[in-house]
Structures are given as structure tokens and as C-alpha cells.
Amino acid sequence: MARMKRIAAVTPGSAHDIHTALRAEATLILDEDRGMCRSIGEHTLPLMKGATRVLTHCNAGALATGGIGTALAGIYLAHARGQGVHVFSDETRPLLQGSRLTAWELQQAGIPVTVIADNMAASLMREVGIDLVIVGADRIAANGDVANKIGTYGLAIAARHHGVPFYVAAPWSTVDAETATGADIGIEHRDAEEMRSLRGVGTAPVAVAAYNPAFDVTPAALVTAIITDRGVSRAPFDFGASRHSDARSG
Amino acid sequence: MARMKRIAAVTPGSAHDIHTALRAEATLILDEDRGMCRSIGEHTLPLMKGATRVLTHCNAGALATGGIGTALAGIYLAHARGQGVHVFSDETRPLLQGSRLTAWELQQAGIPVTVIADNMAASLMREVGIDLVIVGADRIAANGDVANKIGTYGLAIAARHHGVPFYVAAPWSTVDAETATGADIGIEHRDAEEMRSLRGVGTAPVAVAAYNPAFDVTPAALVTAIITDRGVSRAPFDFGASRHSDARSG
Questions:
Q1: Largest CA distance in chain B
Q2: Is B87 helix (H, G, I), strand (E, B) or coil?
Q3: Measured between alpha carbons, how far apart are the two ends of chain A, in Å?
Q4: Does the beta carbon of A203 lie under 8 angstroms from any beta carbon of chain B?
Q5: DSSP letters spanning B156-189
Q6: Is some CB atom of chain A closer than 8 A to the CB atom of B126?
Q7: Which pLDDT score, from 0 to 100, does residue A242 have?
Q8: pLDDT in tens, B177-230
């Protein structure tokens, strides 16, 4: 949006000229987004070698980007190459982005997908076996702490407990070198009503108190690697120092 | 039910006599159940000393028993004694026993309660701070492995990660000395439809696959103590040996 506003502001000429410039910029953004997603996917592929059971949380797929997504990008590419990937998708309460969006888009793409309740992830790791967890990110601090949809932190703890690799895949633009650690990231709390009803169906007593943080912060210590369009980074993460250099390290 | 059937079978005389005997037996069972719950609550109280923020999962309260519940029994007693306990209740997907039953009965009892999505438990422990977790049990193996509502295992892992005590409170009758370990407990899987819709509202794509185990097994190693009407047991648990003796060890 910032880019579109700037174009509108700096383009001289008629409304038609501005429209043409905006259209060109929008197409450029879409192309960049597609390229970014594909790049994340290509950097993810080597980490997915041999993986057939992948768990994800929330939606970081084609529905959330202009391309093939971020966390799901490697999955789309692996599937296209004939690697038999089966995705398990946390439903992601309270807004159910995992069951409503991720499961839907993978189903449309013909990729086998199984929905689980968020509270089943640990059992799934032990009883079924999960080769890796991969999630997106809203914001990544300089030290590698990751802010992402609520539930990501608990999932990372369960993955560590079971020795399952935990990957974060996100655009390089998500890395915020000015934010030293996750402690500097304020957590938004959403309306309790999201926890009390679901499209008109009551899920809890009327007016009961509810805790409803929109996201959580997963400490870098629980993250196996962070995959961006610039490459793969592993601990110790230091995005503060490498912010303006090439992070390709994977 | 087994007791009621036996009474019906062994009581001589008229239908009226059998009715009277069944009524007496039912009252006895209810009294025993009430006493069992109260006993669990009394054994729980010392473990709750100073605790003000308690997290529970599913429903192991008055709605599930003839008395004040099992996991909630100590909470009811602590509240009655003026200990300012605030309960956080996992909603417990997919059937929402935590938000629909536990939150409701605590609200009715005037005990402060806050509903959380299951995936928020780890964040809650870190951001808000939880003094202890207490849950019920469907079945307890001789070695202390605990079968309980799905999600209990992940919660126990999160509790361990944060150094939060994890208690299981259940009737002594739940202890199954004939079952050596949790590995011997078969896990029931329920209809995938429970994960796809909630009272007519779609929560996932029609016909998508869903993983829906009814419960999970928490290994004894993650359990701080098991509280029954006979007392408090701590690791190493050995209910096989103490089955017919007094387990009071707490």
C-alpha cells in the first residue's frame, strides 16, 4: 500500500497516467511476490528431503500471498516433483485459518491434507510421526525470535520435545533488524467474543472472560532454521548484523 | 450400572422390593461419589497452597460427577476457604467440554474463570504465569501413565517446559493395576465430522480428512503427582504393587 500511495503521489499527468502507473506497480508487486514465494519454496526443498509427513499451523499459503505461499511453498514444490507429501493442518483456533484456509487450498491443489485440533499436535508427533513442522511468521526479531499466529509457540515446544525439526518460512521483509528480541514485540489481544461464538453458535458461556492473544513469540532457541527468499539461516541467528548484506547461508 | 444390575438380579420379592433396593443402592453410590470427590479435594488442597492461577483441561467437575468433581474438587474447596483462585479453562476441541461445561459450572459457582483456546496454554504459562495445571483421568496405568482427554499430553509437555507442576486428580477406581503402562491403552478415534462442523457451522472443508483421537496418554514422567481419594502419589508411581494396599503416601 505504501508503494502504491507513493506512485500515486509522484506520477505526473492525468488520472489516466496515474492509473497506468499504478497498474504497472501492482503488476510488479505481484511478480515480486510470486518470485519471493518461489524462492522461499526452493530454499525449503532441501530441508524437506525425504519428508512425507509435515505439520503446519494457521495459513501461510497461496491464499495469504500472491504466489505459492511461504510455509506452504516448499510443500507445493515438493508435491509438484512427486514427493508424496501429506500435510497435517492445525485448525488454529479461534479463527480456524488452518482448517478453513490451509486445508481448503491444499485440497484444491490435490495435496493430501488432514485437519487436526491444535491440542492433537503432540499426540500426532508421537502416535503418527511428523517429519517436520513448518510455519510462517508475522515478524522476525534480529535474534531470530519469531512472532506468528497464536499456538506457534506451543507447537514449537512439542516439536522440540519430540525431536521434530521446526522451520519458519517467511519473506525477508518480515525480518525486523530494528527489533532486538521477541520481548520487544507487543502482543495484540483480540475481542473475547471470538472465543465465545463461532458464526452465531455459542462456544462458551455468554460474557465469560476469554484470553485471546492474536499471536505469540517463539524463542529462537526452539527454531531449527529460518527460511526466507534470501536463503536459510540457522542458529545463532543474527539478522541485526546481516540486515543489509546477503543472508544466503543455507 | 454393574452394581445396579447386580442388585436387581439378587433382590428377592416383588417389583416394589426391587425398586426400593435399587433406590437405596443409587443413593449409596451418589453418597460414595460425593465422598470420593470431597476426599480428592481435601488431598488436593495442600498442593494448591498459595496457588491463584490454575489451568485445567476438559471437564472433571461437578457436571461429570455426583459431587464437586475430581480435578475441580480442590478448586471448589480452596475457593470456599477464601483462597482467591482464578481458573483458566482450555476450551478442549473438538467438543468444547472446557468452555461449555467447566467454564459454565465455575461461573455458576462464582469462581473467576477465563476461557482459552487449547493452543494458548503455552503462551499463558509464559505471559500470565500459571501456578499449577490440574486435570482428570479416564484411566491410570500401573506405572502412572495417564489416559485423559485429547490435549492433556501437549499440556503436560508445555507445563514441563515452563516448570509448572502438573497434577492429575481422579477416583482411585480409575487406577487400573492390570494395565502395566500407557502403551497398553488403546486409543479410540472418533468421527472426523466432529472436526468438520460444530452444530451445523462448517469448521473445515466438507469431506476433508481429520484426525480425531478421543484421548491421549501422558507419560508418568510428565506428571508431578496423582491425587486420588486414597491420597497423593508421586513418582516413581507403582500402582501395580499398591493396588490392594493403602496408597496414602502424600
A1: 65
A2: strand
A3: 31
A4: yes
A5: HHHHHHHT--EEEE--GGGEETT--SGGGSPPPB
A6: yes
A7: 55
A8: 999 999 999 999 999 999 999 999 999 999 999 999 999 999 999 999 999 999
- How far is it, in rounded angstroms, from Cα B209 to Cα A165? 24
Query: Any idea which residues of A carry the catalytic annotation?
Result: 138
CA distance A233 to A220: 11
DSSP strand E in chain A: where? Answer: 53-56, 86-90, 113-116, 132-135, 139-141, 146-149, 166-169, 175-176, 197-198, 201-202, 209-210, 215-218, 225-228, 231-234
Whether B115 sits inside 8 A of A204 (CB atoms) is: yes
Q: Whole-model pTM?
A: 0.92
Q: Of B124, B134, B135, nearest to B161 (Cα)?
A: B124
**Per-residue model confidence as pLDDT tens digits over A152-172:** 999 999 999 999 999 999 999
Residues ≥6 apart with Cβ < 8 Å to B206: B196
First to last CA, chain B: 32
CA distance B178 to A5: 71
For chain A, what is the mean pLDDT? 94
Copy the grid coordinates of residue A84: 508424496
Closest partner CB to B119 (pick from A104, A154, A198):
A154
**Of how many residues is chain B composed?**
250
Task: Inform me whether the C-beta atom of residue A155 falls under 8 Å from chain B C-beta atoms.
Answer: yes
- The grid coordinates listed for A62 are 497461496
**Confidence at residue A4, expressed as pLDDT on a 0 to 100 scale:** 84
Question: Per the structure block, which three cell numbers stand in for A157?
Answer: 515446544
